[in-house]
């Protein structure tokens, strides 16, 4: 009976795959600073907008995309990556962890997945009949005589 339970436990562990590991501050600096992190949040005021954030080596950060451009400041605190808008006081900063999901995909502790930009794009949506370009109508032929 113990062998069956042990076998089931090993099978369950193998089925879940390798868990993503949280990046250290040094790994974040090495792998993600100066690189566009692009994703589309599903919650909050920026939900549904395709955005990229670049954390610069000098501690500044830029969020851009979908008609938005925000400059900010990033720093580390207690092993986490913290950001705030450039003119906000330090108590307005938001701190998150990052984990590597696959070689070019990361996720922060808010659950937002990022790829190292530029990212592969999804196929464009098919245009609707109203949005599809209309073929030009040839001019009418003069009546036959």
Low-confidence stretches: 1-17, 123-139
Strand content: 25-35%
Individual helix count: 2
Spatial strand arrangement across the major sheet: 1-8-9-10-2-3-4-5-6-7
Approximate helicity band: 10-25%
Rounded to the nearest angstrom, the radius of gyration is 24 Å
The biggest sheet, with number of strands, parallel, antiparallel or mixed sense and barrel status, is: 10 strands, antiparallel
CATH fold node name of the domain at 19-116: Lipocalin
- End-to-end Cα distance, whole Å, is 99 Å
The sequence of SSEs as H and E is: HEHEEEEEEEEE
Number of strands: 10
- What overall form do the CA principal axes indicate? globular
Please tell me the CATH architecture of the domain at 19-116 by its name. Beta Barrel
Instruction: Give the class-level CATH name of the domain at 19-116.
Output: Mainly Beta
Round the mean pLDDT to the nearest integer and report it: 78
> Helices and strands: which structural class?
alpha+beta
Structure described in brief:
This protein is an alpha+beta fold and 145 residues long.
């Amino acid at each position: 009976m113990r062998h069956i339970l042990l076998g089931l436990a090993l099978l369950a562990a193998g089925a879940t795959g390798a868990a993503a590991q949280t990046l250290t501050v040094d790994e974040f600096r090495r792998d993600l600073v100066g690189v566009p992190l692009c994703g589309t949040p599903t919650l909050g005021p920026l939900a549904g907008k395709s955005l990229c954030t670049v954390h610069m080596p000098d501690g500044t950060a830029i969020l851009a995309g979908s008609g938005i451009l925000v400059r900010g400041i990033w720093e580390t605190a207690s092993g986490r990556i913290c950001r705030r808008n450039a003119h906000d006081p330090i108590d307005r900063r938001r701190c998150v962890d990052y984990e590597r999901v696959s070689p070019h995909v990361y996720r922060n502790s808010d659950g937002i997945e990022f790829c190292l930009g530029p990212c592969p794009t999804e196929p464009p949506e098919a245009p609707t009949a109203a949005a599809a370009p209309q073929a030009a109508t040839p001019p009418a032929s003069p009546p036959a005589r």
